[in-house]
Design a protein that fits this description.
It is built from ten helices and twelve strands. It is of the alpha+beta class. The strands form two sheets. It has a six-stranded antiparallel β-sheet.
Length: 305
């Protein structure tokens, strides 16, 4: 694992519209507070989705920062098995949306409950892939949300995204012989986890997605691991003014080794997704995000030495 090749994939063709089409946002009247994140999670599960995690963030906000502007704020890690099992063997990098993130929130003193998730066009632009599986999943997501919450209204964000020509995902490749891949995987993760904890990164959830693939007779990978990562300070600061930022959190990092490739690869979302989609201009926030990405880069590279 001595040789590391980092591939920064710059999506120069990233397209932007006059409105912010990157995030699907739903508003539901909820004056009586009967609708909760669990309402959505239960409905998704009934309709064939896997809700790998439904994390209350309001409690940690109050505990660590002593204040919150939300009545409720939850981050979900979700995937639909049929779509993911079809996509991952075709595009290994697509696992950064297996699971994908959904944010639900309701501010204190307000009567509306919100749901935010990335649109199909945003996922396609990030992956630089056009596939009907992605657009079909969006259609299914919309239909399912309306099925669970019939009064949900699709609404728009009050700002446009900011164009960027920077990398929207980062891929790291490590030269590892297939015969050594499983042992190297354990060493890599042990080193990464020891680096993440003191840096404030939390593994919110882990999925052995290769197990899911094998159940459906897909044997392309020696392993395929999905880690949902979160840094509380960052999502707390972002959510103050732009709670829809939860459509990116927790952020999925995938680590996999394809049979016959003699290389282990890691794919992560880049900070530019947040800064461009959320139109972040605040220097303090920008510096915090850049620093977090630099820290994660160092953690990955140090673990591979």
């Amino acid at each position: 694992m001595k040789k590391i090749i980092m591939l920064l994939v710059a999506l120069l063709s990233y397209s932007f519209s006059a409105t912010n089409g990157d995030i699907l946002l739903y508003k539901i009247a909820n004056k009586d507070h009967k609708i909760t994140a669990q309402t959505l999670a239960d409905g998704l599960t009934v309709n064939g989705y896997v809700v790998a995690k439904n994390q209350d963030m309001n409690g940690p906000y109050q505990k660590q920062f002593k204040t919150t502007t939300f009545e409720s704020y939850n981050l979900m890690s979700v995937y639909h098995p049929d779509t993911s099992v079809a996509l991952v063997p075709k595009y290994a990098k697509s696992g950064i949306f297996t699971p994908f993130s959904i944010a639900t929130y309701q501010r204190k003193g307000e009567d509306d409950f919100y749901i935010a998730l990335l649109s199909a066009s945003a996922q396609e632009n990030i992956l630089k892939v056009k596939d009907t599986l992605i657009t079909k999943l969006e259609t299914l997501n919309k239909e399912t949300i309306h099925k669970i919450l019939p009064t949900a209204v699709e609404t728009s964000l009050p700002y446009s995204n900011i164009p960027t020509d920077k990398a929207l995902y980062t891929k790291y490749s490590f030269e590892v012989e297939d015969a050594d891949a499983m042992e190297a995987r354990g060493d890599l993760m042990m080193m990464m986890e020891s680096g993440m904890k003191p840096s404030g990164f939390v593994v919110a959830n882990y999925i052995d997605f290769n197990k899911v693939l094998k159940e459906e007779k897909h044997e392309e990978y020696m392993f395929y691991d999905a880690y949902s990562l979160c840094k509380l300070k960052i999502i707390y600061e972002l959510s103050k003014n732009k709670p829809e930022a939860g459509a990116f959190a927790p952020c999925t990092m995938v680590i996999y080794h394809k049979k016959g490739s003699n290389k282990t690869e890691i794919v992560t979302l880049s900070i530019e997704n947040l800064t461009s989609t959320l139109a972040i201009k605040d220097k303090k926030l920008l510096d915090m995000l850049v620093k977090a990405q630099g820290t994660m880069k160092s953690i990955i590279e140090d673990a591979a030495e």
